[in-house]
Amino acid sequence: MTFDHDLKATVRTIPDYPKKGILFRDITTLLADARAFRRAVDELVQPWAGLKIDKVAGIEARGFILGGAVAHQVSAGFVPIRKKGKLPHTTVRIAYSLEYGLDEMEMHVDAIQPGERVILVDDLIATGGTAEGAVKLLRQIGANVVAACFIIDLPDLGGAAKLRAMDVPVRTLMAFEGH
Ligand code: AMP
Description:
Shape: globular
Structural class: alpha/beta
Number of helices: 6
Low-confidence stretches: none
Bound molecules: adenosine monophosphate
Mean pLDDT: 95
Largest sheet: 7 strands, mixed
Radius of gyration: 16 Å
Number of strands: 9
């Protein structure tokens, strides 16, 4: 598909970053391309265009850039999900699995009201550990997670399937084989 090809061509791949064997999918080149950035945001929100969305939750740090644009597009508020210790007010926190060991993410306890309709945004879904943690955190404070959106899917790592198994509809714009 032309669209997929065009957008995919704006993502830069850096081999062996941050460590040997990883193909790092760098979206800074997509973000720097005005048409690609607009197109990515338009396409991410397309299935939810007619629906009422209260909040967009973005995962630190690339999810902030995309999430801010998505929130603007759907006329929703933006809520940051951050690494622990960064948010100034009272937070809720959850541990989530990384490739090696655990980390923790937080959001403000009053960032979302119970029952509010929320879209989760990040740049890429791999194993789904990060997004799974974010969905659990959102649900912990009563959010209705309507969808999760990512520019890039690494389907071989199973993250999108993991979210769908949690009853979260997943939207991705392109896929890369492997990890
Ligand atoms: P995961 O929790 O395994 O789904 O990893 C997702 C998070 O790690 C996202 O915030 C991505 O930005 C980052 N990430 C994982 N793998 C890659 C990759 N190959 N290239 C760029 N970012 C990645």
